[in-house]
Design brief:
mainly alpha
C-alpha cells in the first residue's frame, strides 16, 4: 500500500518545533538572560538531529546568540561614552526583529532567507 501523504520540506523529518522553542526562549531571554543561554544550548543539541530548512534555523539561531553577545559587549564598553545606551537599544531591536522573522519562517516551514547576515 502506497502512502500519498504530502511531506513537509526536509522529507518529513523536521517539524520546526524545537526551532520555534528556541526563538521563544530568545525572546524570553530579553527579560531573563538565562533563557537565551538555554535556547542556544537547545539549538546546538538539535542542529545535527534535523535536516533541511530546520537545520538552517538552528544555524541562524546560534549565530544570533553569538553576534548578539558581541553586540552587547561592545554596547557595554561604549556606555562609558554614553552612546552605549543607544547601542543597547539598537541591539534589543535587532534581537527582536531576528526572532520574530525567524518565528514567521518556522511557522511557514521555510528556511530563514539569509542565515549569514549580521543584520536581519
Amino acid at each position: 500500500m502506497q502512502d500519498n501523504a504530502i511531506l513537509p520540506p526536509g522529507g518529513g523529518r523536521a517539524s520546526g518545533g524545537n526551532a520555534k522553542v528556541v526563538y521563544i526562549l530568545y525572546l524570553g531571554g530579553i527579560l531573563i538572560g538565562l533563557l537565551a543561554l538555554i535556547g542556544v544550548i537547545i539549538a546546538y543539541v538539535s542542529r545535527n538531529d534535523s535536516g533541511g530548512w530546520v537545520n538552517d534555523h538552528y544555524r541562524f539561531q546560534i549565530r544570533t546568540f553569538w553576534i548578539g553577545l558581541l553586540y552587547m559587549v561592545v554596547s557595554g564598553a561604549a556606555t562609558v561614552i554614553v552612546i552605549g545606551w543607544v547601542l543597547f537599544l539598537a541591539t534589543l531591536v535587532w534581537w527582536i526583529v531576528r526572532c520574530v522573522k525567524g518565528l514567521q519562517c518556522v511557522s511557514r516551514s521555510e528556511p530563514y532567507p539569509n542565515i549569514e547576515t549580521w543584520l536581519w
